[in-house]
Amino acid sequence: MKIGAVRGMRDILPEETPLWQKLEAEIRAAFALYGYREIRTPLVEEAGLFARGVGQATDLVHKEMYVFPDKKGLTLALRPEATASVVRAYIEHGLYAKGGVAKLYYFGPMFRYEKPQKGRSRQFHQYGVEALGSLDPALDAEVIDLAGYLMERLGLPREGLFLRINSIGCKEDRARYREALRDFFTPRAEELCADCRRRLSENPLRILDCKRGGCQPAIRAAPKSTDFLCAECRAHFQEVLAHLDRLGTPYELDHTLVRGLDYYTRTVFELASRDLGAQDALLGGGRYDDLAELLGGPPTPGVGFAGGMERLVLVLRDRAELELAGKLDVYVIPIGEEQEVKRAAVWAASQLRRAGLAVDVEYLGRSVRKATQVASRVARHALFLGPDELAQGVAKLKDLSSGEERPLKLENLGAAFQQKVRARG
RNA sequence: GGGAGCGUAGCUCAAAGGCAGAGCACUGCGCUGUGGCCGCAGGGGUUGCGGGUUCGAGUCCCGUCGCUCCUCCCA
After folding, report:
1. What's the Cα-to-Cα distance from A332 to each of A180, A337, A358, A365, A375, rounded to whole Å?
2. What is the total count of domains within chain A?
3. In the structure, how far is the CA atom of residue A355 from the C1' atom of nucleotide B56, in angstroms?
């Protein structure tokens, strides 16, 4: 092996790209139906955007971010997620001044320096939506409904999925809750793992995320964030759930769902698959009502989610009955060594392409038999062109499913082909 | 960051210290210029990389890189 792809980053080969294209098309279509329009932001941002927006203390920023200086000494970062970029662009271009709710969606690679495993790589691809400008709990519900609709549209059975939801309240609620957790866990510190004892001082919310068996009894007994919601946040959350009930969306209240990014407020949710391993979250999101202000813009509430393409591919690959082969219309096979013939073959291919047909030419000098065999695999028709045909001004067109073969005048070749094929129905 | 397993042909995998192999794929021939089946032949490899032990290493040891999975975290 001379040189290979960088660790945690992989090539998506032509075998797989049709599935990716199909998924992208479905996702775009679903987003469009819910009123979202695409935004494309740079892959590179000032590192400070994520430090401030996502949170300096989060794993994602202080452990997993690709950071590098540019030639002028600016500290740049490959984006580890897109919400901060989208909100930055929203502020920078004054999209709030256009009034209404800004509904934006994005698509593209993200970068996190992590140890690769199933469903987790260093360059991965996310799709996501952000709805900026409204506090309405109906919008939270709509975003969650969009996530559910997307999964339906992709053919993922509802039984294989589950929606976890929680509310972590506004900034003030969270401060009170954080203190309550600290008060609760401090006397029980011996029951917690080393990581959690560290979290106790840094960010007690994250203790709830711990998956270690030893910590579970304490976590189960811990106070719930929903018991610390102010009246407004409580009403907001209840209304979100009421909408979900009305929409017929099943969900599980999960008091340990806090998510790892600092900007989240109020509603947080995760849609996970029962068919994946340890990395089972297909998409996750929530509300982030303080983010725009934190990044120097006007106070603007927002809600959205992000999903992982690779995980979608993992779940969908096996059940892809999608006929994605994509055969050529014509495979042109020049016969013999004569340059005159070869030139005519290349010319014929060019003519057919201009008539809207997908065409390739035999370039490897394989035997006619072999070339025909290849043609039958990759194309619907073979077009034979040798010295005899050239002398008569024709080529022989063979239908590779029926075996039927007919001469085709080279003059006006594209039209002749269309006529021939249509005549047969 | 911690742990476990695995790296041999394009792909899937054999070779348990002694000649690096099979199936599939690829190319040619049987069939001179026409596919699907069958038969025959052929091309292919620094056994991930580097070191060590040994008369001899794909095999044992050390290191390194990569992959897979778990933990952690998250999409």
Report:
1. 75, 15, 11, 12, 8
2. 2
3. 66
What pLDDT digit, counting tens, does each position of A202-256 carry? 788 888 887 777 788 888 889 999 999 999 999 999 999 999 999 999 999 999 8
Please give the sequence-ordered ranges of beta strands (E in DSSP) within A90-224, or none if there are none: 102-111, 123-132, 161-167
Give the pLDDT of residue A321.
52
pLDDT tens profile A267-315: 999 999 887 877 789 999 999 999 999 999 999 999 999 999 999 998 8
Distance from CA(A371) to C1'(B24), angstroms, rounded: 20
For A312-332, what is the mean pLDDT? 77
Q: What strands, in cross-sheet order, belong to the sheet with A102-111?
A: A37-38, A102-111, A123-132, A302-308, A281-287, A265-273, A161-167, A252-253
Reading the block at residue A94, the tokens are: 């004054």
A385 nearest nt, CA–C1': B33
Domain boundary pick from A321, A338, A359 = A321
Which two tokens mark A129?
């939506």
* Shortest-distance nucleotide from A314 CA to C1': B75
- How far does CA A268 lie from the centroid of its chain? 19
Q: A76 in helix, strand or coil? A: strand
Torsion of CA A310, A314, A251, A193, to 10 degrees: -80
Residue type, A65: M
Q: Are A258 and A394 in a shared domain?
A: no
Chain B positions under 7 Å from a protein CB?
Answer: 1-3, 26-29, 31-36, 48-49, 65-75
In a domain, A201, yes or no: no
Q: Any idea which nucleotide's C1' is nearest the CA of A405?
A: B34
Does the model's ipTM exceed the 0.85 cut?
yes
The candidate with the shortest Cα–Cα distance to A180, out of A223, A234, A230, A229, is A223
Structure tokens, A86:
């989208």
pLDDT in tens, A373-382: 999 999 999 9
Whether A67 is covered by a domain: the verdict is yes
